[in-house]
SDR family NAD(P)-dependent oxidoreductase (Paenibacillus mendelii), 250 residues
Amino acid sequence: MKRFSNRIALVTGAGQGIGHSIAERFAAEGAHVVLVDIHQDVLQQSEDRLLAKGYSVSSRLADVSKTDQVDEAIHSIHQEHGAIHILANNAGIAWQEAFLDIKDDNWRRMIDVNLNGMFYVAQRVARIMKEQGVGSIINMASTNGLVGEARYAHYNASKGGVVLLTKTMAIELGVSGIRVNAVCPGYIRTPLSESIDSPETVSEYIDRYIPLGKVGKPEDVAGVFAFLASDDAAFITGESIVVDGGQLAY
Ligand code: NAD
């Protein structure tokens, strides 16, 4: 019997990068995984890759920052599967911008996806988990939710919000059998990070900041999501686990 047999897991931002890896890990450990993403093309490719490996997955197109789309997606997933046991609340965006130059629209979009979207999905799923009396929610934060980094004021603010949202949810939902934790990755190689930094910048970054001497892989983060969703983490809630190759040890 696999760890997540007979479990329904929902993964947002599952089209690529860390979200795809989380979905693969849950599926490999026996869950039926529902992939959610805003982009039809990457969502379809992600689903096809996992189906080709023989995993049990399905997909729903939705923008987590739009409440009508979130409501529709979660309602239909619940109707179809009858339960949601695990939520990997992963969808997020990032780009660099000096604080003094951030346009209001850019600020709003960052907060809309990374913080508001996380809240919309978590709240709707937590209502279902409360009825079930059991569930595990894992919110994607970042080391940038714990310490500042120049040119990321909007991103840092959104991820700092996720860390405290997580703690508050854990306090309120524990009595309903729902555990809520956050994961704070450092530098992970994904399509997102590759779109921001050149290979030279990454190499300098590793030398200066990462004791393990390498950037992380999506799988390094997916394993921590799987741990937090599993019974091995049965007494862990309200925690934010850093996965950064030692960067915050400095
Ligand atoms: P990515 O861009 O490679 O993948 C993100 C996925 O989310 C994409 O498939 C994208 O289409 C989807 N998405 C974006 N906006 C969405 C929306 N509004 N609704 C639904 N889906 C949406 O990014 P990644 O590097 O895999 O990052 C995943 C998460 O991990 C993000 O929350 C990010 O902030 C966080 N994170 C990443 C790193 C890193 O170094 N890559 C570090 C710390 C935290």
